[in-house]
Amino acid sequence: MPLPKSEWIWFDGEFIPWEAAQVHVSVHALHYGSSVFEGIRAYSTPQGPAVLGLQAHVRRLFDSCRLARINLAYTPEQFEQVILELVRRNGHTFCYIRPLVFRGSESFSLDARSCPTHATVLTVEMGRYLGADAIENGVDVMVSSWRRMATSTFAAMSKSGGNYLNSQYIAMEAKDYGFVEGIALDVNGFVSEGSGENIFVVYRGVIYTPPVASSILMGITRDFALTLAKDMGYEVREQMLPRDLMYVADEVFFTGTAAEITPIRSIDRQVIGSGSRGPVTKALQVAFFAIVNGEAPDRFGWLTHV
Ligand code: PMP
Predict the structure, then answer these.
(1) What is the pTM of this model?
(2) 69 alpha carbon to ligand 1 midpoint, in Å?
(3) Domains with residue ranges and CATH for the chain
């Protein structure tokens, strides 16, 4: 599906038309994956569009820059203002927001700290990521033959362009086998995450999710789900999870900015729980969507109104 273009893009300090935001083929990021990015959603609320987790996403972008040793000439506060202004200018009621920071043209060296840094923000009006009925009916997924990167190879907690080749392998393999998404294990065989989602398992009333040491991206929706689950009185455990636990679980679900909270109804053609959205997943969805859609008070301060 082609990207639903917006009118304006912010690029290196200026708001310019979508078509004008071009780069040269010699940019370092294109050759070596030396970019970092974010994925953020703005939801439509009765008070107008509101960005979900703005500060957390911008902070993670700056952490990713630090890991990649990319210097950025803006403060997090300036970046937040740019994002809000772009959503306003493009007149969105809701949208997906993609900040991207990358190394430009100067050198083909692998120590490319002499390359200039470019920064841009794009917005698109994107709907449901894993399919229109995924939120209610759940998705069929497989355990990928690809593992997540070992902690001694890449910085898994960095949202950097290069890391996403691994995610692309996982996603393409899953599609080729007729699944919506793949779940990657870490190099030790413990459950890690989906190609673009964190994963949760509900087993005998306890909610489990892999820890940061299992090569996951520290998802912001993961944090929201943990906050909601604790607030609702569930016992929550962040711990290494064997693959086996998923097949005997009562419920398994994904979280992510794009995937939101999506139930998983089967893994490797094995039905999970009842084979439809479970009660814990549903309760978390209801609480989550009520807040992000502005129907319930923003008790945890997640929203920034545009
Ligand atoms: N893991 C990976 C690999 C991702 O790309 C994403 C999406 N950013 C997530 C997890 C979920 O993170 P978040 O909830 O912050 O979108």
Answers:
(1) 0.97
(2) 21
(3) 8-124 (3.30.470.10), 134-292 (3.20.10.10)
Give the integer Cα–Cα distance in Å for 45 and 40: 16
Tell me: the pLDDT tens digits for 153-201?
Answer: 999 999 999 999 999 999 999 999 999 999 999 999 999 999 999 999 9
Tell me 18's DSSP state.
G
Q: Which residues pair with 209 in a beta bridge?
A: 238
What's the CA gap between 132 and 138, in Å, rounded? 10
CB hemisphere CA count around 207 (13 angstroms)? 23
Residue 175 among the catalytic residues: no
Residue nearest to atom 9 of ligand 1 (CA): 197
Beta strands in the chain (DSSP E): 8-11, 14-17, 35-37, 40-45, 48-52, 95-103, 117-124, 139-143, 181-185, 191-194, 198-203, 206-209, 235-238, 251-256, 260-267, 270-271, 303-305
Pocket residues for ligand 1 (CB within 6 Å)?
39, 167, 193, 196-198, 217, 219-222, 255-257
**From the CA of 219, how far away is ligand 1's center (Å)?**
5
Q: How far is the CA of 199 from the centre of ligand 1 (A)?
A: 10
Chain position carrying tokens 């994107």: 126
126 Cβ contact partners less than 8 Å away, ≥ 6 residues apart: 4, 95, 96, 258
Pocket test for ligand 1, best of 167, 168, 217 (most atoms within 8 A of CB): 217
